[in-house]
Amino acid sequence: MASSKRLSSVSHSIAHHAVSGLSYVHPHLRQAAKARTEETVFINLLADEPCPQRFSEIVPLKAALNSLKLRFLEILKSEGFSNTDLKAAVLMFEFPESYAADYCSNCHSLLIHDAGKQYVHAVNYMGESISSNNALKALTSFARTGEAGPLAQSLEATPMSGTLHIRLMFEWGGGSLWCGNEAALKEFDVGPVDDKLPLSNAMLERLNALSQWHDTALNCEYPPDPGPWSPDEYEKFEAEALAFLSDIQAELGPDFEVVYEPN
Fold first, then answer.
1. What is the pTM of this model?
2. What are 16-34's pLDDT values in tens digits?
């Protein structure tokens, strides 16, 4: 049985493919979105027809989105999974005003395993990883209801070079905050930085509690297999992690950018 952590690789790969010229989605998707004054477009990769109904008469776009779905299923199979292993697989294409060309977009990918675990990745049109924080609530809402939730302000293509980029990423046995760019590595060095950041004791205690909670999801008898958590438990943990993300970002201030990376 494939380790569910490999779904992180699938999420990463499909987001990269979706923004590349090899997907043939561009420039058709942005042109269609502009015609309807839409800044974002959501695609359900598990739907029988991934092309949104409102775009169904745009033949090149419909063909490209169906090809994108097939490529997703190929990537999924290569990692040892099938579509029946997933509750949801959705993409959000985002078209910031700063991207002048119709070939340019950001793509946010969300996969939800049948056990409830979420795997998120986001890239810009250059293939560079960007924060998915602003899109996560909208993606999750679309995955569950077919309707997009609230979307925060669009991100630029890359974070400001002087910003200290911190990854909130829970690892088995401890270590939850990690450097995410060269600026942060220069300031804090490699390894977990939980105790190196200017955080209050109360915030560190919350982080430790979340880390211990996270570790109860592990199948101790055979870690590659699904753990004991129910889908409801995964949802509760993700909700708490997102609430913590908001609070830690507020405490660290504008010199930091904290990104949550479910594993």
1. 0.63
2. 899 988 899 999 999 999 9
